[in-house]
Amino acid sequence: MDFKSLWHKYVPDWKLLLRKGLPYVLVAVFAAATAIAALGVQNNRHIYADINATKVELETHQQELNTILSQTKDLLDRLRAIESDTLLLMQQTESEKSEVADKIEELKNTFESIENKERQRWILPMQYKLCSSSYGYREHPVRGEANFHGGVDLAADRGTPIVASRSGTVKYAEYIENDAGYWVLIDHLDGFESAYMHMDKYIVTEGQFVVAGQLIGYCGASGVATGNHLHFEIRKNNQTVNPADYIDMY
Ligand SMILES: [Zn+2]
């Protein structure tokens, strides 16, 4: 078998093949071209969609940024309002501080006036001729030695009425020889007591309540005394104080 016959046996007639196959080839080529073009368009569509999506995203971001910006502005406004409120409060606090200081001053004055009234509550216990001995250190009129005089000595005639200097309860009404003689101690129930010594006699009993100005006894020279007088004491928390600080007597 020669080459030509072999060729005819295994390779089809190319003209026939071309005639019959060309339309298919053309259709195939056209289809391929169409497919490639379609793929390109598709690809472009993807890109456009991506761009659009990015645009939408950017717009969304911008809106968010605008929202944040307006919120920030609101916050700033609020901060400014708080700042001015704070300033106002500080001014108010300052004025309240001075009001409180005024109130304290007022209370102090009230307290002082109450204290003054408290002092005014004491009554002179006896009309006297002279104050023969005042409160403090002195030479004892009988014993001669230096000692502390815990009261005032008010000289008056025997029998001159003695009254309670303040209201209170009679704690002692007794006789002590070589000392206070007939004497009365009144407890004023607020830490204050008053003592009345060397009486000619007392007319109250222990436990009796007496009011300020009420007669409690008479002037004399009982106990240790050089003459008729009233030894008058005011005691605050068991310590003698100067009666002249509570009663005008000199
Ligand atoms: Zn005295």
Q: What best-fitting shape do the alpha-carbon axes yield?
A: rod-shaped
Tell me the strand percentage band: 25-35%
Radius of gyration using CA atoms only: 61 Å
How many domains make up the coordinates?
A: 2
Average pLDDT across residues? 89
Helix content: 40-55%
Question: What are the distinct ligands in this entry?
Answer: zinc ion
Pattern of helices and strands: HHEEEEEEEEEEEE
Major β-sheet, in short?
10 strands, antiparallel
Main traits of this protein?
rod-shaped, alpha+beta, binds zinc ion, Glucose Permease (Domain IIA), 10-stranded antiparallel β-sheet, two-stranded antiparallel ribbon
Question: Could you explain how this protein is built, in words?
Answer:
- With 250 residues, the protein is an alpha+beta fold.
- The protein folds into two domains: 1-120; 130-245, Glucose Permease (Domain IIA), CATH 2.70.70.
- It is built from two helices and twelve strands, in the order ααββββββββββββ.
- A hairpin with a 4-residue loop joins β7 (181-187) and β8.
- The longest helix is centred in the N-terminal third of the chain and has 107 residues, at 14-120.
- It is rod-shaped, with a radius of gyration of 61 Å.
- The termini are far apart.
- The mean pLDDT is 89.
- Bound molecules: zinc ion.
- Zinc ion (ZN) binds next to loops.
Concise description?
The protein is of the alpha+beta class.
How are the SSEs placed, and which strands pair?
Elements lengths: L2 H8 L3 H107 L9 E4 L2 E4 L6 E4 L2 E4 L5 E3 L4 E9 L4 E7 L4 E11 L6 E2 L4 E5 L9 E8 L2 E3 L9
Antiparallel strand pairs: 1-4, 2-3, 4-11, 5-10, 6-7, 6-9, 7-8, 8-10, 8-11, 11-12
Zinc ion binds next to loops.
